[in-house]
Amino acid sequence: MNNTIDIALKHRTIREFTNEKIDEKTINKLLEVANHSPSSNGMQFSTIIRIKNKTLKDKLAEIGGQAYMKRAPEIWIFVADLFRNYNIAKENSSENDEMIGFDKFIQAFTDSIIAAQNVAVAAESLGLGTNYYGNIHNDTQKIIDLLKLPKLTYPAVGLGFGYPKQNPQLKPRMPINLRAFVDSYQVFDNYNEKIKEYDEEMTNYYDLRDANRRSDSFSLQIPKRQGAIIFNRNKMFETLINQDFIIK
Description:
By secondary structure, this protein is of the alpha+beta class. It is built from ten helices and six strands.
């Protein structure tokens, strides 16, 4: 097995980091990785905001509701960005509404996620630990205001990384035959039966976020996490419209 696959199979979320600084040569190399990530139609619809200011980190942690966020040596916010290309077209008197429609927003959002994942894989290959911050969507509008994002941009995901200060358990995953099918989607008669062993694994898994307490079974986590509104995330679509994307 090659080293890249081995690293991917051992991926764990790291929430606490050492004080060791990441040198600028490494930072620049990771920025190159992001810049060379696949992009829909070659339009390069993503932008990175690198957070260096401590006050900004503190505010991000407050909005996200996760104190450990402010302790990450590096935080990058990946932004879906239609603003740049729209203004290039506008300067050439060739802009139109199709450039800022929902289809292009999805392309920009996808570009951002792909770039973030490429950076995460590259960072982990260098011995760094990573943590995705979906909590930037706890109040997306506050993030937009905080980072002074212009119209036609939208924060997609945050990524924190640094040298790991912890060695958490590898989090169990459900059997791949429940998540990968051939030619068409497969529906099962009894999902609880299918995940019975996985539920037991999750119950015995210790999540560092919960002070080394055992985790709930996966089936119990579903209504708690998927079935509940998190902060102001129900306003995400409203914020998207406020950013002037055309939704039809």
